[in-house]
Amino acid sequence: MIDSSLSSLGAEVVLATSSDNNHPPENIIDGNTNTFWMSTGMFPQEFIIRFAQSTPVSAVTVDSYNVKHLHIEKNTSQNVSQFEFVTEQECKHTEGHLQSNTILLNGSDATHLRFVITSGYDHFVSVHRVSVQNAHT
């Protein structure tokens, strides 16, 4: 299994609805749970990850804090429009430590994944790492 979301493999965060210089969206894909992207309050919040090439996605793991409901969409084109629904997840509240949610997907190809946080357990949420597993070796 390859983690295609890592910036070292060419993945990029091409859109985020909020940004803080101390906690930029790029922290989501640096592979380090000690760094993170933080929302600036209000919902929904979203970010889009673009892969270096079309990628068969079998599972996504999201390490976050205070995320209550997460909606995931994908597309297979080079631009960031016309996404299709993939799945949604209700995340368990984990006071004082990171949430780690692995979401199994169907292995279909994607060039972009859009993550929409529709609600949180607080006004602010953070995403520490997104890990995308695919079947290519």
UniProtKB/TrEMBL annotation:
Give GO cellular component annotations, separated by semicolons.
centrosome; cilium; intraciliary transport particle B
Q: Among the record's GO biological process terms, what is one?
A: intraciliary transport
Keyword Cytoplasm on entry: no
Q: What does this protein do?
A: Component of the IFT complex B required for sonic hedgehog/SHH signaling. May mediate transport of SHH components: required for the export of SMO and PTCH1 receptors out of the cilium and the accumulation of GLI2 at the ciliary tip in response to activation of the SHH pathway, suggesting it is involved in the dynamic transport of SHH signaling molecules within the cilium. Not required for ciliary assembly. Its role in intraflagellar transport is mainly seen in tissues rich in ciliated cells such as kidney and testis. Essential for male fertility, spermiogenesis and sperm flagella formation.
What UniProt keywords apply to this chain's record, in alphabetical order?
Answer: Calcium, Cell projection, Cilium, Metal-binding
Q: Which residues form the F5/8 type C domain?
A: 16-125
- Name of the protein this chain belongs to: Intraflagellar transport protein 25 homolog
Localization per Swiss-Prot or TrEMBL: Cell projection, Cilium
Coiled coil regions in record = none
Lineage, top ranks:
Eukaryota, Metazoa, Chordata, Craniata, Vertebrata
Give the molecular function GO annotations: metal ion binding
Q: Which InterPro entries match?
A: FA58C (IPR000421), Galactose-bd-like_sf (IPR008979), IFT25 (IPR033558)
Question: Pfam families of this UniProt entry?
Answer: F5_F8_type_C
